[in-house]
Write a sequence for this structure.
């Protein structure tokens, strides 16, 4: 079965397992407007590090994980509009799949 057909049209699966997410509003990361974010495929260590950093705060764990996978600061993820954040959540759900 081709997993690409299971993805929403705003997510593209890359050959290395990363996912590129098209954002509606975009975010500014390191002073540059981003219309897409590419999330590399997470490891167990990524999840452990995010949980440790967030100290039990589930929402912050997710923000930290997204930031780590995208290679940007958590504050950049926190500035995302909810529509864009829900797209990132959809990508993560697919990766957890």
């Amino acid at each position: 079965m081709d997993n690409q057909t299971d993805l929403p049209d705003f997510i593209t699966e890359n050959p290395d397992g990363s996912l590129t997410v098209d954002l509606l509003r975009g975010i500014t990361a390191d002073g540059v407007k981003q219309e897409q974010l590419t999330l590399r495929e997470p490891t167990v260590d990524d999840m452990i590090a995010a949980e440790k950093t967030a100290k039990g705060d589930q929402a912050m764990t997710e923000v930290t994980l997204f930031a780590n996978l995208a290679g940007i600061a958590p504050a950049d993820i926190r500035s995302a509009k909810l529509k864009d954040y829900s797209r990132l959540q959809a990508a993560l759900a697919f990766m957890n799949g």
Notes: The longest helix spans residues 82-96.
